[in-house]
Amino acid sequence: MIHPRLGHLTDSGMGLQPHVFLLGLLLLLGQGPTHAHTSPRENALEEQLLPELQNLKNFLFPCNPKKSESSVPPKSVHSVRPSDIKFVAAMGNVDTAPDSGIINLEKQNWTDPRPQQVCMEVVTVLSDIIRYFNPSVLTPVCTPGKRVAPHTGVEDLQVQAEELVRGMKENQQLDFQNDWKLITVFFKNSSQGHLCSSAQQQRHAAGGLDMLAGVLDYLHQEVPNAFVNLVDLSETLVVSQWDQGTQLSPMAELCRYSGETSKLSKVVAQWSYQESWNHLLASSKYNEQESFVVVFQPFFYETLPLEQPLHDPSTLALNLWNSMMEPAGQKGEPFSARERRPVKCPSQENPYLFTYKNSNYRPRLLKSHEKIEVRDGMEIRCPDKDPSDTIPTSVHRLKPADIKVIGALGDSLTAGNGAGSKPGDILDVLTQYRGLSWSGGGDHNLSSVITLANILREFNPSLRGFSVGTGKENSPGAFLNQAVAGDRAEDLPVQARRLVDLMKNDTKINFQEDWKIITLFIGGNDLCDFCSDPVRYSPQNFTDNIRKALDILHAEVPRAFVNLVKVLEIINLRELYQEKKVNCPRLILRNLCPCVLKFDDNSTELASLIEVNKKYQEGTHQLVESGRYDTREDFTVVVQPFFEKVNMPKNSEGLPDNSFFAPDCFHFSSKAHAHAASALWNSVLEPVGQKTTQYNFEYKINITCPNQFWPFLSTYRNRVQGYGSELPCRDRAPSASMPTSVHTLRPADIQVVAALGDSLTAGNGIGSKPDDLSDVTTQYRGLSYSSGGDSSLENVTTLPNILRKFNGNLTGYAVGTGDANDTNAFLNQAVPRAKAEELMSQVQTLVQRMKDDHRVNFQEDWKIITVLIGGSDLCDYCTDSNLYSAANFFYHLRNALDVLHREVPRALVNLVDFMSPSVLRQVFLSNPDKCPVQQASVLCNCVLTPRESSQELARLEAITQAYQNSMRDLVESGRYDTREDFSVVLQPFFRNIQLPILADGRLDTSFFAPDCLHPSQKFHTQLSRALWVNMLEPLGRKTETLDLTANIALSCPTQNEPFLRTLRNSNYTYPTKPATENWGSDFLCTEWTPSNSVPTSVHVLRPGDIKVVAAMGDALTTAFRARSSNSSDLSTSWRGLSWSIGGDGILDTHTTLPNILKKFNPHILGFSTGTLEETAGLNVAMEGARARDMPAQARDLVERMKNHPEIDLESDWKLITLFIGSNDMCHYCENPETRSAEEYVWHIKQALDILYEELPRAFINVVEVMELAGLHQNQGGKCDLPLAAQSNCTCLRRSQENSLELQELKQMNWNFQSGISRLSYWPQYLQREDFAVVVQPFFQNTLVPLNSRGSADLTFFSEDCFHFSERGHAEMAIALWNNMLEPVGQKTTSNNFTHSRTKLKCPSPESPYLHTLRNSQLLQDHSEAGPNVLSWAVPVAAGGGLVLGVGTVMAWRALRGHQRENPPISLRTMSF
Question: Are the CB atoms for 300 and 324 separated by under 8 Å?
Fold first, then answer.
């Protein structure tokens, strides 16, 4: 490839001048111009420009000369390769027009050397390219004319030819008889025949050849072994009055084109002119010999020149070379004076210069223009072709036979360009066969020509407006087909205005009474030119221009049904263009649609065009589905999307089938028009939302009949039938005055409706056809049970459509299809596959939309918000039981509802129970032949793949129950009943579903979308009815079962009970929860087996590998006062309940670390039981212990292990938990110098050193100390005077709020935590493979547990309000266990002290080990680690913990600052 800098350097105005580029190319393409071949003048010029040439050093010539070399001299001109050329020459006056001004012919200096210089520049570039293949090529020659005054170009050419032949014969370095010569003859046709009408094309070319015959004959006779290029410079240079040289005839008839001539006509005419030359030369005597040939090299402008001459001869030379590298008749690269094309190389298959013979050239011009015989017709036999009994007044009740007028707007595809042209007759593409146009033509009848008009004439023979015959839009036969070839969207308003005026002024059209169908199709030309002006052809401008045209029709045309056909997917045109085996005029294609065809497949420009194409389609869809044109009963616009996705039709050989295209391979043939007409007709009858979006041209044409039971043209308001409901309510009035309480809210008071959730609420697949699995991705939001607003209740049952019967001004509902970001989604912010953790984002978006939208009075309007979430969480539960735990589900749901509660005034929230996963299993198990099991298993693996009666299925049912219970608990907590204008009501109708059974015993899958996962419209209808009924049922008596086959009648508010039901107006009291019997946990892990063999590395240690547990610490580890019920228990240590070492009972009743580990290894040793010292096991903790006591505890622990008869000290894996520091904090102020953080860490390290030296196979948990500074705050009630704190914690008693002592205490606390956090990275403990110290930071930022009233929950603490209760110990055990399963650097640094039996995490299949620094990937494998392995690990990990800790502390303190009225307690204050 040419170096990209080359293009930059040659840009006009900012790069090198042409001669600089020329010499750069001369120096860099080949061996460089040698002294033997360079004149002194050229050397001087080269030296003069040498500094500028340094910019071209990076230029790389792309061709490999060895691939095109020939070992044998060619015997025929048709096998001449570039390496065979020995001499390059040119003749003719090659010049560029002056930059400005007009030169007087009389004053022109005809001996001016510039033409000679320009000619030399062109041939030198050609010569230098060839020198790359043949270094011995001679110095090029450009023969000057001998004229001293202007005269005819033919005479001058003859003089130049004679001089050229004479010079070649005299050249001593040239073997005149045997060397191959490349001669280029430049001429200018003053008539500019390439811009003339088709009738003049061949005459101009033949006349030009006649004029050149003398010169060509002379060369033919005199010059052996010659390849002659014939170049008409009138294609590249505008012929001005000052430049008349080298013209064939100054008296020739001048052919000018008007500015109104379309781009198509210019392109086709120019191609025709060039093809005329090719045809003449291919059949001339110059193509018959083996030693001489003349080839016409065309220059096809990508943008036709008007007044822009060629300023860069080197560009001309490169384009000439590229043209020589392409077969005659297949030259596909348009000429561009502004853009330098890459240099083409000879191919291995065709390494020669192309002639007509070796190109297998066949002329495409046909002289026959007889009338085409159309045979694309068919018959339709519809049983009902009658019009309505009376002329309908609603467009939504319009039958085909009611249509009396047809019109069409658009571009050349609607004008019918080339529709009737014979194959190969490219000139005839300029003919507009409007009578064959798919949307507006009416030639013959349906039996011979398939068009929309001819189909409609089968229903109403008196139809008017269709076009017949050929002609432009202003021809008599065009009638109401006002499409204009070459038009773009910006031209549509003018077309619309002209169409309206024609209909108004036609005396045979009753403008007010006649029903009209108008088809609008535009956009191809916009896309083809998008890259030339992205702003002008932007999607927004495209949509705006269509809107302007539709607005004219909407404002002025009564009784009209408008088809807006989506712009087709144009990218497939590339397939036809790129397939060389298909005979297409690629130059025409490339020129008509450059932005689609000229870029590489993987280019950003092409990707941008594809995106714009999609946005064109989406923009028009959104425009129409906004409801803008459904404000009148007698007018509608319907998007017909069958062109949205179009595949290139293929023939029997698998090649693009060009029989569907006109001869230019761009426009439709009559065959394609017939297919498009049938597709349009069928789309008009297909219900909105179920229309075909991908048309296959290869299918046989099929014309459907209107549905006998619903014979109307489909609109947005009549699109769905059979899913409507009757609302019998007579009293539909709102409250006498706007209610201020949610408990006195009537249906008619609701002004805004919204919805949140997953794909069920987004409407995936609701309107999909039974077999259209791919369409399930379509979000039919307008049909969604809780937020859809399509059509009306008579046709579509949804909650908004029910509410609209009470309040016609309801807003917020969704219409049509699209995702949550589409404007027509409005306040339906559900997202497919959304999980509970994403609900917060939906809430935030919803709140912002309600605040910003002018249709919503955020403060005053009453709102119904329906929330349904949880199904997607269950579908993925088995992939990460921790992430999708019931506790996390509860947490995310609560946070989302909290935001609604805090920010949204006047709202009633429906919290809908989700569909049980067992329902989906039943559907799939009962219909394995209909349901796509494999695809669905990917989407919902955890529900569909477990075997019946398996443990996995039992766990799924348990977690489902836990989800449902958490929802009920959240609502019944009363958390959202604290405001008069807000309430959350659980609607439980979805909890139990009775599936429909067919007569054969199978489930009725018609209630489901094609994927068998999502509900169909039939299902959504029942959901809507059940939700409405639930909303009117009082709490305590709500229906919890949905029978899909039941006839669910819509309830009505009664006179005595006219309100939507809430807790208060139901006179209902939530049931009192029974006291929690124990603080046990449920074990839901699926992987609990130990390693296959006892591991030798601590970094692959599974929970099941642990054989021994032990603990060190103070009163919190001895479980001091954990279960105190009377004064005699106040000094008891309940070691069997201790969080880190207790083993009383089982996990179901007592949550401790050993009881969790027993699930993995029932034979674990070392845990404590009861309260006696004899049963303490390996719990060596002591009340009142400090860090200085840890070495002694470590020695005691080692001794106990060594003496334990059942412990194999060398082989058994040991888990030891060390938690100390509360007493150090409480007494540091007595002697700060001796109780520093350094001393604290030093003592702990001493203990760890003992364990390191004495114990093989050990995993050490070091738990960070809690903060004590909050103990000065009164806890309220019985804890007003925390005597224990005052007596046991000296430093806390001395500290007052905001005192320096308190700040010092906080700083010391932080120093303790910070110092201990580094122990995981201590180099000494990383040396052994069987030993690890891991800091567990869950106490670093501890949040206060609150009760349902928002105050501190004292059930976590013992009677002294200082030590932890059994409940507190259970929460500590859960937090420690979960920390152990989290990677270092990603560990939770705060607690979640809320009761849930399902909070325990499970080892993941990917990483089933207890996490250490190394297996957390924060440290290299020991075998790979270098000497400085810790230089990055310690600061990074410790710093990360610092940031997390500070952030969480600051956030908590900010929150605490807002709660001064009821100050909570920090659990950091509870450490001891």
Answer: no
